[in-house]
Design goal:
Elements (H helix, E strand, L loop, with lengths): L1 H8 L1 H16 L6 H22 L2 H20 L4 H21 L7 H22 L5 H19 L5 H22 L5 H30 L6
Helix pairs in contact: 1-2, 2-3, 2-9, 3-4, 3-9, 4-5, 4-9, 5-7, 6-7, 6-8, 7-8, 8-9
Length: 222
């Protein structure tokens, strides 16, 4: 049975799905505090463990560390946007290094255009959404890093409909956060969209990278 195979061969991936999906339904629960913060970080944290156990070599280390830093960002965002954003920024830098090490040999003109658009438009849109809110410049600079990550992912050799699309979902999730901060999106819309887009993007990125790296080594991708 597929679900038995998931439990047997990919328990950390199953744990991530349980944590990530369930967090969406408890994110506004009254329990709050440290438990809810850890619950939030568990979704991507288990993806990091999954990547660490299922990959080898330097590229495997990069994806595992990038996911770990994003999980720390998830937790610390509840304390400070700047601290959480710092963890995410370093995680994105590691992801960029991974994608640049695995650039696609022959990208088409449309693929290069999509990558350039993600790189340039992401910080521009973030600036327009947050100006003149305090620290809008920080949002724009951070979004530049996110856009660079997505551009590198889109033009990498990793599956575009997993890793590239996951990175785009990450961009959209962050832009909705900034739109909510700038008053362009109601809180209710943000509450419904931000976490599913973010976690779904991270799930696609993790599984897409892991499957490719395992395939390189002649291992099963399960």
């Amino acid at each position: 049975m597929p679900h038995r195979a998931l439990i047997k061969h990919r328990p950390w991936l199953l744990a991530s799905l349980v944590a990530g999906i369930s967090y969406f339904f408890v994110s506004d629960a009254p329990i709050g505090g440290a438990w809810l913060m850890l619950w939030k970080g568990a979704g991507v944290g288990f993806l990091a463990i999954y990547a660490a156990f299922r990959t080898r070599g330097f590229d495997g280390l990069l994806i595992a560390l990038a996911l770990t830093l994003c999980a720390l960002g998830d937790v610390t965002l509840e304390i400070s946007f700047l601290i959480g954003g710092g963890f995410f920024a370093v995680g994105h830098a590691l992801a960029i290094a991974l994608y640049l090490r695995n650039r696609r040999a022959g990208s088409t003109g449309s693929q290069k255009f999509a990558g350039a658009s993600l790189l340039l438009l992401t910080p521009l849109i973030a600036a327009l959404l947050t100006y003149p809110v305090e620290n809008w410049q920080v949002a724009a600079v951070y979004s530049g890093v996110v856009g660079a990550m997505a551009a590198a992912a889109w033009t990498s050799r990793f599956p575009r409909y997993q890793v590239g699309s996951g990175a785009v979902l990450f961009v959209v999730s962050d832009l909705i956060i900034f739109a909510r901060e700038g008053g362009a999106v109601p809180d209710l819309v943000g509450d419904w969209l931000i976490w599913p887009l973010y976690y779904g993007g991270q799930f696609l990125i993790a599984t897409g990278v892991v499957q490719t790296l395992r395939s390189d080594r002649g291992l099963t991708v399960n």
